[in-house]
Design goal:
By secondary structure, the protein is α/β, with parallel strands linked by helices. It is 50% helix and 14% strand. Helix 4 (79-92) runs parallel beside helix 9 and helix 7 crosses helix 8 (189-201).
């Protein structure tokens, strides 16, 4: 089945304590988890380590096409958040994409407040006058770059600082369809909830931390490698 569609597996009893608890509950004999893990990988399944990851990975699969590869572009409001996302990418086998010269030139023209590297920090020079507009411009550029396979958008929202236009938010999600794109949103609670709802209604899944978003993308990209291996058998 995994050769045709991604299969996500969640198994309890990974540890000695958990295995004993599972056996007492089901009456079944617990298997060695290392053996199970090898079997899962050989079968081409995507294993989630906890319920949080299981739900996140299933969400990514339900919203997004499979990434063509593992090169990710990160668009962020903060260099620190960008570094956290970069660490998560390294831990999970994703690469930070290198922007092509035409993409870098377009970003320089469109985003005077940004530092044109990946992660793309839109606040590096100074806070932009209209952050939502800059996010949209950034997505329009990076999603057209052939060297970008998927995108993480780290979005800060606040009606007290910037104009909040849900039409622009919807447009971000629509532009993001050019590549598998996920988002993390932070800011005023009500605005965060509204922004997340609009993004997801228009096809961009939202996760509760940059690390969880990267993890879901990484598991999704892994599923493509599994399908490619299966197609050659």
């Amino acid at each position: 089945f995994a050769r045709a569609k991604p299969v996500v597996v969640l198994k309890s009893g990974r540890t000695g304590f958990g295995a004993r608890a599972a056996a007492s509950h089901t009456g079944a004999v617990a298997n060695d988890d290392a053996v199970f893990d090898v079997a899962v990988r050989q079968a081409g399944l995507v294993r989630a380590r906890d319920l949080e990851e299981f739900l996140d990975v299933a969400k990514a699969f339900s919203y997004l096409p499979t990434p063509r590869g593992n090169r990710v572009a990160v668009v962020t409001y903060s260099g620190g958040v960008g570094a956290l996302a970069a660490d998560a990418c390294a831990d999970l086998g994703l690469e930070l994409a290198t922007f092509s010269p035409p993409t870098a030139d377009a970003l320089r023209r469109s985003l005077p407040s940004a530092r044109i590297v990946n992660p793309l920090d839109l606040f590096a020079v100074a806070p932009p006058a209209d952050y939502s507009d800059e996010c949209l411009k950034a997505l329009e550029c990076v999603t057209q770059d052939a060297g970008v396979d998927c995108v993480l958008l780290c979005l800060m929202v606040s009606r007290h600082v910037w104009q909040h236009d849900t039409g622009v938010v919807a447009r971000m999600a629509e532009v993001g369809r050019a590549r598998p794109a996920v988002a993390w949103v932070i800011g005023d609670k009500g605005v965060v909830e509204e922004t997340g709802r609009v993004l997801e209604e228009h096809g961009m899944p939202v996760f509760l931390s940059p690390e969880r978003a990267v993890r879901a993308l990484a598991r999704h990209a892994h599923s493509r490698r599994v399908q490619q291996r299966g197609a050659t058998r």
